[in-house]
Amino acid sequence: FAASGASACVAPLAKAANLRMTHVMLATDGVWDKLEKYKGSGVTALLSHGADLLYDIDTDMTTADLTEVAEQVQSMGINNLTRLDAPTTKEDDGAGGSWEVINSSQLGASLGIMVPKS
What we know:
Layout lengths: L9 H8 L7 E3 L1 H9 L4 H7 L1 H5 L2 E3 L3 H14 L11 E5 L5 E5 L1 H8 L7
Antiparallel strand pairs: 1-2, 3-4
Helix pairs in contact: 3-5
């Protein structure tokens, strides 16, 4: 990421999550805290504070791409945004320790793109 920017994260993140992705937005928990403040106040409030939000987001998206995201948020309703931490699983890191990797099956189920076989 440090050498190539946010666009370098798209392919490895998509592979790890087993999701089709075209862009990536990296943000701290503080961004969600800010977004939650705008729930119920409409997209106008979101757009008027856009610079404040963008300061805490690293992305490969252009201004036009971000405007499209804001329009999608407007059509869905900001009240319908839900924060979801990606489920993880511990794996051996090969050096005697462990690290956490995205559990793509649980993530797919949480997002509603995978459903249990009935």
